[in-house]
């Protein structure tokens, strides 16, 4: 039986309160210095928690690692919980997202080891090819700054739009230089992009949300991110100062083992790609 606990965005309020309280407490109070208990890892349900639970079931015991997995359904609570010590690590994000999060929220999360890439894809219930999108079509994109920029770069890479020169990881629709199809953009929470497919002409969906909603990126995406030189690999992360926690080191080694690589390749069939 899987020892996972599902958390919704209601965790945010509790996480924010805990962060405020722990700022006045000792390291012991925050749980950051105690390495004797289980390593609690916050993760998105798919594929992160699935990969962690494979490790828990098949590899952790032999490695002497007591691993507990907690599932979160948003992209904010895992970092706030890691910052306040509610969990010892998280596994759900990429470097541009983390850089943006740390900058905006004053957190101190750092990457430990990159495990996999979830290619971002464009999906539609109305057309079978990207170039079949009609003039004035509405495309849903994630509303967080990093994933929105990533979505626009995907569309630009496939000739649907052209972005202004020098646009980085904070691109918005206002940074579009050319829009030959006069596409309209609907900004929605990343987790809601698969659900928006019945209401828009197409949607750019993060790999984990695509998989959890029953989409198969390698098969169903109209266009899909290339894995080559891709900066959006997902990694295990901790609060700065906890990188040398022996439990974290054990998990990092297990997450980049041949057994995990085979599990990812067999289970996700190209929709999730090992990055090691």
Task: Walk me through this protein's architecture.
It is found in: Membrane. This is Lipoprotein. This protein has 276 residues and is of the alpha/beta class. It is built from 11 helices and 14 strands. The chain has helices at 11-22, 27-30, 45-58, 60-63, 77-84, 95-105, 145-157, 207-212, 217-220, 246-255, 258-268; strands at residues 4-7, 39-43, 67-72, 89-93, 109-117, 121-123, 138-142, 162-163, 176-178, 184-188, 202-205, 223-224, 234-239, 273-274. It has a 7-stranded mixed sheet, with helices on both faces. Strands 10-7-11-6-12 form a 5-stranded mixed sheet. α1 runs parallel beside α5 (77-84). The protein is globular and about 60 Å long. The two termini are 29 Å apart. Mean pLDDT is 89; it is low at 1-32.
List keywords for this structure.
single chain, alpha/beta, seven-stranded mixed sheet, disordered N terminus, Lipoprotein_NlpA, membrane, Lipoprotein
Topology:
Blueprint: E1 4-7, H1 11-22, H2 27-30, E2 39-43, H3 45-58, H4 60-63, E3 67-72, H5 77-84, E4 89-93, H6 95-105, E5 109-117, E6 121-123, E7 138-142, H7 145-157, E8 162-163, E9 176-178, E10 184-188, E11 202-205, H8 207-212, H9 217-220, E12 223-224, E13 234-239, H10 246-255, H11 258-268, E14 273-274
Parallel strand pairs: 1-3, 2-3, 2-4, 7-10, 7-11
Antiparallel strand pairs: 4-13, 5-13, 5-14, 6-11, 6-12, 8-9
């Amino acid at each position: 039986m899987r020892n996972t606990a599902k958390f919704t965005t209601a965790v945010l309020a509790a996480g924010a309160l805990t962060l405020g309280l722990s700022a006045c407490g000792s390291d012991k109070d925050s749980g950051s210095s105690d390495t004797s208990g289980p390593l609690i890892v916050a993760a998105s349900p798919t594929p992160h928690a699935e990969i962690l639970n494979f490790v828990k079931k098949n590899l952790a015991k032999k490695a002497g690692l007591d691993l507990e997995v907690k599932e979160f359904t948003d992209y904010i609570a895992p970092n706030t919980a890691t910052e306040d010590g509610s969990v010892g690590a998280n596994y759900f994000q990429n470097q541009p997202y983390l850089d943006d999060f740390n900058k905006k929220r004053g957190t101190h999360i750092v990457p430990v080891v990159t495990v996999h890439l979830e290619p971002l894809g464009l999906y539609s219930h109305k057309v079978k090819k990207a170039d079949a999108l009609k003039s004035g079509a509405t495309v849903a994109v994630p509303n967080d700054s990093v994933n929105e920029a990533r979505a626009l770069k995907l569309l630009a890479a496939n000739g649907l739009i052209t972005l202004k020169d020098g646009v980085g990881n904070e691109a918005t629709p206002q940074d579009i230089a050319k829009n030959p199809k006069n596409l309209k953009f609907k900004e929605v929470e990343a987790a809601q992009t698969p659900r928006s497919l019945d209401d828009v002409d197409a949607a750019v969906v993060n790999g984990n949300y695509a998989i959890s909603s029953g989409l198969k990126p390698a098969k169903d995406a109209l266009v899909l991110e290339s894995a080559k030189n891709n900066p959006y690999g997902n990694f295990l992360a901790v609060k700065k100062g906890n990188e040398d926690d022996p439990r974290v080191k054990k998990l990092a080694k297990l997450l980049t083992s041949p057994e995990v690589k085979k599990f990812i390749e067999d289970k996700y069939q190209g929709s999730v790609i090992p990055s090691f």
